[in-house]
């Protein structure tokens, strides 16, 4: 158990809650990419069975392992042929952006549900029973994780959505220049994973920002529903 605690980024006793939250977050994220790509005229993802909320088709084993041991990771990328879009650049930006947006909306929805349950007394603030404590913990993890995934996916590094947005937003000549750096993306991720120095300037600030955002939104919804958080 001590070995697992040291290996995992998340506390072992909280791991089931993180896994459930990740399944929901990654599934909705990738489904959003696939759904909008299909809506915009590219059937590639649909033909491969990716326009679905079935988690099994969206999971990438390496991405999940890295998320559990390093604090970040990814799902299986949705294949997209931008040439099928009537406006490849604009529609590619939208398809890339809906992934992080879906995580933002999931985080907000989770905060709203938590606030309503909290204020109606369905989950008491004291967390009297283990079930109450588990519900509190799950919602806090779910909200924080979705906000983190939203921010992380907006980082402009390949193969993240932020890079795809930047790649399609830049003029073609500049876009071609940054595409040359795609070959170094795995090395960059390995540096972030293996060296705490890089984590302090990448993963940690994103988590801190996600935590601050989740706390403020939770407090706002709880105040809107007639109370305050203990």
Helix percentage range: 55-70%
- SSE pattern, N- to C-terminal: HHHHHHHHHHH
Morphology: globular
Q: How many DSSP-defined strands?
A: 0
What is the rounded distance between the termini? 33 Å
Spatial extent as radius of gyration: 19 Å
GO molecular function: metal ion binding; metallopeptidase activity
Domain Peptidase M50: 18-118, 132-194
Transmembrane segments: 15-36, 56-74, 94-117, 137-160, 181-198
GO biological process, one term: proteolysis
Description:
It comes from Paenibacillus vortex V453. Keywords: Cell membrane, Hydrolase, Membrane, Metal-binding, Metalloprotease, Protease, Transmembrane, Transmembrane helix, Zinc. It holds the Pfam family Peptidase_M50. It is found in: Cell membrane. GO terms for molecular function: metal ion binding; metallopeptidase activity. With 230 residues, the chain is mainly α. It has one domain. Helix content is 67%, strand content 0%. The protein contains eleven helices and no strands. The model has no long low-confidence stretch (mean pLDDT 87).
């Amino acid at each position: 158990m001590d070995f697992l605690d040291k290996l995992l980024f998340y506390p072992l006793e909280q791991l089931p809650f993180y896994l459930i939250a990740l399944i929901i977050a990654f599934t909705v994220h990738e489904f959003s990419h696939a759904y909008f790509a299909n809506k915009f005229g590219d059937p590639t993802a649909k033909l491969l069975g990716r326009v679905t909320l079935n988690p099994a088709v969206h999971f990438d084993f390496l991405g999940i392992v890295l998320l559990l041991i390093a604090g970040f990771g990814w799902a299986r990328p949705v294949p997209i042929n931008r040439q099928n879009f009537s406006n490849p650049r604009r529609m590619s930006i939208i398809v890339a952006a809906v992934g992080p947006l879906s995580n933002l909306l999931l985080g907000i929805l989770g905060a709203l549900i938590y606030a309503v349950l909290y204020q109606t007394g369905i989950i008491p603030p004291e967390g009297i029973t283990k079930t109450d404590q588990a519900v509190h913990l799950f919602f806090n993890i779910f909200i924080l994780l979705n906000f983190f995934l939203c921010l992380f996916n907006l980082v402009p590094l390949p193969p993240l959505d932020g890079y795809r947005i930047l790649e399609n937003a830049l003029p073609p000549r500049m876009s071609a220049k940054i595409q040359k750096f795609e070959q170094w993306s795995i090395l960059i991720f390995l540096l972030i994973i293996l060296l705490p120095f890089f984590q302090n300037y990448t993963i940690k600030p994103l988590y801190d920002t996600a935590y601050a955002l989740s706390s403020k939104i939770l407090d706002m919804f709880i105040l809107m529903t007639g109370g305050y958080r203990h």
